[in-house]
Structures are given as C-alpha cells and as structure tokens.
Design a protein that fits this description.
By secondary structure, the chain is of the alpha+beta class. Helix content is about 30%, strand content about 20%. Strands 11, 14, 17, 18, 19, 20 and 21 form a 7-stranded mixed beta sheet that branches. Strands 1-8-6-3 form a 4-stranded antiparallel beta sheet, covered by helices on one side.
Length: about 450
C-alpha cells in the first residue's frame, strides 16, 4: 500500500526544510535505511534516510525548493501502484483556507484577460500615432539656450536628457523642423556631437564631462539558517532588556602561560580556549549568571555548557562544549577545533548545538577591540571577546611599561541578571585570566 513521505522536523527550531539534493529518483527501489535526500535545515545540511520500503512512485518538490515541516515530499509504494487518490486526500486535508485561496486566484486569472484588452488595443495604434505621442506639445517644450537659440524638443526627450545629464542643445533633431525626440537623445554620443561649437570664432570653456555608470545589484534567496538567525536574534534583541558591562583584562601572564602550555599540550591551545575554560570556572562560582529565562520561571543550571559562536558562510552556528568546567584545556581545544570544522562542512548535528547555558563570541582574531553581542536565547548572558592589543600601562612602581590588554563585554538579560551580579562575575573572570593558575584551583 502506498505511503507518503513527509518533510521531517530535524531540529527543535525547524519550521521548513530545503531539498538540497535527491539521491533517489522516481522508479527507484528504496530499502529501509537508504539515503533518500539531503535536507538543508536552519542549522546544517543533513541526510534523510527512509524508514519504509518500496518503490519511489512520486517526488514533489525539486532540488532547492523549501517545504514546510510535515508536508508531503514523496510517495512510496508498490511498483505501478496508483497513488493519485492518496495525494488528493492529502491535499484535501489542507483545509478550506487553501481552497479559498485557490478560488480567489482562479477568479483573478479570469479577470486578467479583460484587464489586458486595453493594452492590446493600444498596440494596434499606427506607427505615426506613436511618433506623435512622443512629440506631443513639442511647441510648448521649446526652450532657449544661453546664446538665445531656441531648441524644440518633446517633453519626453527633455526629461531623458535631464536624467542623463545631456545638454539638449547639443543634440541634433531628426523630426520635421529639427525637433528633438526621444530616439535622438538616446542615440546621442558626446564625442559625435555636431561640430557647430568648433566653428565658433571665440574659444569657449569645455563642457563638463558626464560620468556614465550603470546601477546593478544581485538578490540572493534567504537560506534556512539566515531565516532562523534573523527570527531568533530579533526576538532576543527586542524581547529581552539587554544591558552591557565592559572590563579590561591584562593578558601578560595569560600569554606567558599559553606559551608554556603549548610546549606540552598535544593540541595547540588558543586564547579563546583559555577564555572558555576561565569562563566555565567563573560560572561555577556565579551560578546566577549560568541561568535561562523561561517566561514564567527562571532556570538556574547546575551544569555548565558553553556555546562557542562559529562563523560560517551563511551565518553563525553555536556548537556547545558540554561540562566545560570539568574538561582540561587540551580537551576543550580539540573539541572546539572539531566543531569549527564540522560547522564549515555543514556536518553539525542537533545534539552539537542544543543545550547551551552560556555563550562566548570572539572577534579578536578579526582585529576587533570591543563589541556587544546579542544574547542567544534562552541563555541569560553572552560574553563578547575583543582582540589583545599592546598598550602602555602603569607598572607597580609607577613607571610606564608596555603591556597587553583585552576587553570583554558581558551582555545581560536584565530580567534574570542584575548589574551587580554581572559585574561580580566579570571580576572573577578577570582575576582568573590575569593569573591563569586560578583556573586550575
């Protein structure tokens, strides 16, 4: 018996999916577990395997088409089986709303020919009438040049000349009496202008050259990922009352410690890894920051899962380092590198990006000194990391010495975290980065 295959819900935020690629075609035999298609969700491109067996009788959407979750995308059954009744039944489930829209569309299509009768008649006008239309009221359009010479031109020709920055007195008219019409202006080229000015006895200043250019643009269809980013961050920015706290950290000891760690670590440790580990340790001391706003209640998380914002071509993904406070720096470094590669290859799974309790966004590697980030809901905070820069600092003895500083900005949801709570967290994080041994305590 024929069965429909529906667009699956492959993440908690997915409302529709895009058929990136079909791996089967109509008439192919499908076994349970066979790869049928690749589906682009709001986070990644994922493989869709069949849970049914049979012959692929029907494929609805083509590659690149967006389909709402639970809509029919294919039909599977026995070879030669009639599936049209099944499809009609599925279409009838769409409800009266869809049928009303269809009737309205049909009514509009019927009215369309009637509306098009007028343009059809206008096309039958003789060529002479079309010329006269361009030259309408041409006598009234006559204008005088600075030299007192009268120029006869149609209103349309004058309008086009003004838009193109053309001195209409330089254009030669082709209509009776030397009148200038639309085609004369469009065909006008400054370098081929009539040599009337050259014949003048007195030299005149050269006319200002007209810079001609062409406006152009490209429109790109919004991807599923970008749609989700737009929706979620808009809800966060305009729904959560953000406030921001910025602190400056001396990174001299962190730079020294990282250099010594990388002499022994099997994986290269980055400054981002150091910040992530220090953040997880600071969150253990400030559980109110490791919280989530759930509308009618606040969740204070006992586990620490830190999301790391990773930039990809289509937007931003936030894979999660779980139980970050219990992991070593080398474990964190290896995990973050693996996530970054998966994100770029679109191989992240829902389990990789779900469940964060706090988020870090680092733009220091792009030369950004300081910025504010939008909270990743339902987290109550996100930490924005700037780049390390060498600056003059006042030493312990009062002398000016070179130092390395980094700015961090904490975005807080004021419904959950108060200013004093956020400030205390930043003070602890600053102390840990300025003395990395505290991270290990």
């Amino acid at each position: 018996m024929a069965e429909v295959i529906r667009m699956p819900k492959m993440s908690d935020t997915m409302t529709e999916g895009v058929l990136a690629k079909w791996h089967k075609k109509v008439g192919d035999k499908v076994d349970s577990g066979d790869l049928v298609a690749e589906i682009e969700t709001d986070k990644a491109t994922m493989d869709f395997e069949s849970f049914q067996e049979g012959t692929l009788l029907y494929i609805g959407p083509g590659e690149g088409d967006a389909v709402p979750v639970n809509d029919v995308i294919a039909v599977l059954g026995e070879e030669g089986e009639d599936y049209k009744a099944l499809l009609e039944a599925e279409q009838n489930k769409a409800g009266d709303g869809d049928s009303g829209e269809a009737e309205e569309k049909a009514a509009k299509e019927e009215e369309k020919p009637a509306k098009e009768e007028k343009p059809a008649k206008e096309e039958e006008k003789p060529a002479k009438e079309a010329v006269a239309e361009d030259e309408e009221e041409e006598d009234e359009a006559a204008a005088s040049t600075p030299e007192g010479k009268r120029v006869k031109a149609s209103p349309l020709a004058r309008k086009i000349a003004k838009e193109k920055g053309i001195d209409i007195s330089k254009v030669a008219g082709s209509a009776p009496g030397g009148r200038i019409v639309k085609k004369d202006v469009e065909a006008y080229e400054p370098e081929k202008a009539a040599p009337a000015a050259e014949a003048g006895a007195s030299a005149k200043p050269a006319a200002a050259s007209v810079v001609a250019g062409q406006e152009s643009f490209e429109e790109v269809k919004v991807s599923q990922m970008r749609k989700t980013i737009a929706r979620r961050l808009s809800e966060s920015k305009f729904g959560a009352p953000h406030f921001y706290l910025t602190i400056t950290v001396n990174m001299d000891k962190a730079i020294e410690a990282r250099g010594r760690m990388n002499e022994m670590s099997p994986v290269k440790i980055s400054f981002n890894d150091l910040v992530l580990k220090a953040t997880a340790s600071a969150l253990r001391q400030h559980p109110n920051v490791n919280s989530s706003w759930l509308g009618d209640k606040i969740r204070y998380n006992h586990h620490i899962n830190v999301g790391v914002a990773v930039a990809v071509d289509e937007g931003l993904l936030v894979p999660v380092v779980r139980f970050a406070d219990a992991k070593s720096l080398s474990q964190i470094a290896a995990e973050v590198k693996d996530f970054a590669q998966k994100a770029k290859d679109k191989k992240l799974q829902p389990s990789d990006w779900e469940g964060s309790t706090f988020t870090i966004s680092n733009l220091g590697m792009f030369g950004i000194e300081e910025f504010t980030a939008i909270i990743n809901p339902p987290d109550s905070c996100i930490l924005a990391i700037g780049g390390i820069r060498k600056v003059p600092v006042v030493g312990a003895d009062g002398t000016i010495v070179p130092g390395n500083e980094m700015k961090m900005t904490l975005s807080c949801d004021h419904r959950v975290v108060d200013g004093a709570t956020g400030a205390a967290f930043l003070q602890t994080l600053k102390a840990m980065l300025e003395d990395p041994l505290r991270i290990l305590v």
